[in-house]
Design goal:
It is a single chain. The chain starts with 10 loop residues before the first helix and ends in a 17-residue tail after the last helix. The chain has two domains: 1-34, no CATH class; 36-161, Roll (Pnp Oxidase, Chain A), CATH 2.30.110. The model has no long low-confidence stretch (mean pLDDT 91). It is elongated, with a radius of gyration of 29 Å. The relative contact order is 0.14. With 214 residues, it is α+β, with helices and mostly antiparallel strands. It has helices at 11-20, 23-31, 41-49, 96-103, 132-138, 172-197; strands spanning 52-58, 64-70, 77-80, 83-89, 106-113, 118-129, 147-161. The protein has a seven-stranded antiparallel beta sheet. The protein has six helices and seven strands.
Length: 214
């Protein structure tokens, strides 16, 4: 049985890994079956914090396409141990992803966590599902968007990368909240300091200058 990582490591890729010295490490991983093929606690925890990801598809002519999907944390949901799903919100109505999946179900999810500098890659297949009940289950509560359809993603394998070269960035709303909290704390400390010092002494009287002699 082929290791799950063969979904990404073709014979040509393996030959390049051999040429460049990384094949042995991946071969040891393949002896253990390759990459995970189901949701683990680690992946579940990552999905619970995910509010943005990229979905890659390929057209019938082999043209790749990547589309961003965003929403509240956890909107990419776990259906079962090998299936993920999300509500597909209305956008610019080009329907490139929808058309690609109609011709070629192969798909790829790329999850980037800039705050914690980590990334997760998920290979598999995806399909559009026109099921109002499923869409209602997947639609996030208290989110302003118009759902058009549901997309289900079947996991074939997934892998996580090291944090090399990932810039650390924070969402604007989190930075604003942190700054507001610090400003409020500074004001509180300034008020406490002023109270500890007590009232300011009255200013010293200013001596009148002697009249100039003629």
């Amino acid at each position: 049985m082929k290791p799950s990582s063969d979904i990404a490591f073709t014979p040509r890729i393996k030959s390049i890994q051999t040429e460049r010295g990384s094949r042995a490490a991946y071969a040891r991983q393949e002896q253990k079956g390759g990459w995970p093929t189901a949701v683990t606690p680690h992946l579940a925890a990552t999905l619970a914090e995910t509010n943005s990801f990229y979905l890659a598809t390929v057209s019938s002519e082999g043209q790749p396409y990547i589309q961003h999907r965003g929403g509240p944390k956890g909107f990419l949901r776990i259906i079962d141990e090998t299936t993920l799903g999300f509500a597909d919100f209305a956008g610019n109505r080009q329907y490139i992803t929808t058309g690609n999946l109609a011709d070629n179900p192969r798909a790829f999810l790329f999850l980037m966590d800039y705050v914690n500098r980590r990334r997760v890659k998920i290979w598999g297949t995806a399909k559009v599902v026109a099921d109002p009940d499923l869409l209602a289950r997947l639609f996030p509560e208290v989110y302003e968007a118009r759902p058009e359809q549901a997309i289900l993603f079947s996991i074939a394998a997934w892998d996580r990368n090291c944090p090399q070269h990932i810039p650390q960035m924070f969402p604007a709303e989190e930075v604003t909240a942190a700054v507001d909290s610090l400003v409020a704390r500074i004001k509180t400390l300034e008020a406490e300091l002023a109270q500890a010092r007590g009232p300011s002494p009255p200013p010293a009287p200013v001596a009148e200058a002697a009249p100039a002699r003629a």
